[in-house]
Design brief:
2 copies of one chain form a homodimer. By secondary structure, chain A is α/β, with parallel strands linked by helices. Chain A has 2 domains: 3-109 and 327-351, 2-Layer Sandwich (ornithine cyclodeaminase, domain 1); 116-322, Rossmann fold. Chain A has helices at residues 9-15, 18-33, 107-125, 142-152, 167-185, 193-205, 214-220, 274-280, 284-288, 301-306, 327-344; strands at residues 3-7, 37-39, 43-48, 52-61, 66-75, 86-94, 100-105, 132-136, 158-162, 207-211, 223-226, 245-248, 267-271, 297-300, 318-322, 348-351. In chain A, strands 1, 2, 3, 4, 5, 6, 7 and 16 form an 8-stranded mixed sheet that branches. Chain A has an 8-stranded parallel sheet with strand order 10-9-8-11-12-15-13-14, sandwiched between helices. The model of chain A has no long low-confidence stretch (mean pLDDT 96). Chains A, B: GO terms for molecular function: alanine dehydrogenase activity.
Chain lengths: 352, 352
């Protein structure tokens, strides 16, 4: 029999902070680049096409001695049943013995690690002095993407917010986002006045502005992060100025697309996982339509961190980070939570 | 948040009985034949070739409104660490909402459902009046395979036991097997004198005999069940008499083989899952060596239960059931355990 720890959602949230998650996700990318990690093939099943599906992403972090999986279900009819449409969990095992260690719901981890990925893309690929961030999409992920980018890019002064369907939603988002960022992300730093003050002032000093002029906003942005469920490009190639960095977050299923595939033709393209990006990421359409080939992907982002591949070559480069989300991000974060929980006696321990 | 139930190993064992598991496994096969079930692609990863691996088998039982997965790790060095070499769990979710329901260790379920499969193969494919069972292999699975076959085949009078490496092990197995069967399988029927008496007398009336004469034993058997980790055929084609039924249980990985591939040429071959049998089952080698083609597999066993495919056509047919083990067997059994546990208030309930 083995002790197996289950952490409830409030404790998962309590044990995570964005600075830590950024470090964890960077470590996962780095281990992958060092061949100290393996992404296993994804299992995908549609229960009812366009209405309900599930996927199982799994992998092995050799360098962290863990393996495991994340299962995420999407049931479009759930809200009518007072249930969330996305439900999932992350489960971690010891890769030296195969023994299960513990599990937890996947929601908070997914939001945090995906948010971290958007900022990490900017950190390694955007121009260091980038001042202007454009966020396309005002859903659950947007605050997480903004926070990680503010933490990682010290010169950001302005965040323009665009919702493809509603200026009103973008305005409403801007009116509450400062308060939301403070509430969601600052609590873990209450005991660390230096960090608390640093992040609080980042949130306070930045200007948030809603727009419905996506062409103009694109032309003014240094960094563009897209996080929508779109299946049609929202941003056209002609609008993009030299030097722009894209972190494309939304595309994680076949057919999803947020930016004009022609942007890829002249951009330096980086991904989190080549196989997955080609299959389901923003990179899928440009390859399927022949705009680029698989070999035109410069590298996985971990290679840039590791220093084996150059990221941006000049201030005029257009760079793209296609983040599809890989199990390694979830596993390393879940493992961190489980270690913290064990040390603090948090969670329910069952025998398995 | 969702309630998620974790059942510990003693309770899993307490909530299972072989008669019930046979019914559950039959139902899983039947649902599959009725296209009320889907087996998802298997994920397999070798941590260290020949020393440590893991697989994730998953699937959907439409008819039972559940889906889920079973993860099994094999770490050959575990015994030196006072850990079992095989470690795993089964996790069940609701296929109407995607909500996780519960989980438990996989050991007892695997033994019970695999044992049940061997007997079910005999029930649907062996001659009804079969009297003589040959068990090849004296490992953990053997008592489970014997018990299910005794429960399902009323005329069995003799069980011959063969261990490919040691007559001594076969003898020792025979000297204790009656007591082991009673201890392992009768407890759940204490409140049901009719069943208790029926199964107790089946165990008492059967003769167990060890042998090291595998050629002779093969020629005398009506039913042969193989459950070894062999990678070389143990039973040759020339030894097999007409009318014999094989339930091949051991082969579940590429390269495993227990019976001469030439036996397949003139046999009626049934499997639990065609894709998996061709990939990793006893059927793999006969197809790879060209003895049969994939189309020579008569059907999945569920079709025989459903009546859409005939099993045995004559008393002289040699029949083979290649059981590789499918997630549906585990899921339906785990779901039964979780429903029983909920009704009885057993297990630990965590928030997920």
């Amino acid at each position: 029999m083995f002790s197996f720890r289950v952490i409830d959602p409030p404790n998962v949230e309590k044990l995570l902070d964005m600075k830590q998650v950024i470090e964890l996700v960077e470590r996962a990318y780095l281990l992958k680049a060092q061949k100290e990690a393996a992404v296993f093939p994804m299992v995908f099943h549609e229960f009812s096409p366009g209405k309900a599906d599930m996927d199982i992403k799994s992998g092995h972090l050799v360098g962290a001695d863990i393996f495991g999986l994340k299962l995420v279900s999407w049931f479009g009819d759930n809200p009518a049943k007072q249930l969330p449409p996305l439900v999932g969990f992350v489960l971690v095992l010891d890769s030296r013995t195969g023994v299960p260690i513990g599990m937890m719901g996947g929601e908070a981890i997914t939001l945090m690690r995906t948010g971290a990925a958007g900022g990490i893309g900017a950190k390694y690929l955007a121009r260091k002095e980038s001042e202007h961030l454009l966020i396309v999409g005002t859903g659950h992920l947007a605050p997480y993407l903004i926070m990680s980018t503010l933490m990682l890019m010290d010169h950001i002064k302005k965040v323009t917010v665009y919702n493809h369907h509603s200026l009103e939603k973008a305005r409403s988002f801007c009116s509450t986002i400062s308060a939301i960022l403070k509430e969601k992300f600052l609590a873990p730093y209450r005991d660390n006045p230096v960090l608390f003050e640093r992040y609080a002032s980042r949130i306070e000093q930045v200007e948030f502005a809603a727009t419905d002029q996506i062409q103009k906003a694109t032309g003014e942005a240094d960094i563009i992060i897209t996080a929508t469920p779109s299946r049609q490009p929202i941003i056209q190639k002609e609008w993009v100025r030299p030097g722009t960095h894209f972190s494309c977050i939304g595309a994680d299923l076949e057919g999803k697309q947020e930016i004009d595939e022609r942007i890829f033709a002249s951009a330096r393209v980086f991904v989190d996982d080549v196989d997955q990006a080609v299959q389901v990421g923003e990179t899928e359409i440009p390859i399927k339509t022949g705009v680029i080939e698989r070999d035109n992907i410069v590298a996985e982002i971990g290679s840039v961190m590791l220093g084996t591949t150059a990221g941006r070559l000049s201030d005029d480069d257009i760079t793209i980070f296609d983040s599809t989300g890989i199990a390694l991000q979830d596993l390393i974060t879940a493992d961190y939570i489980l270690k913290q929980a064990e040390a603090k006696g948090i969670g329910i321990v069952a025998n398995l």
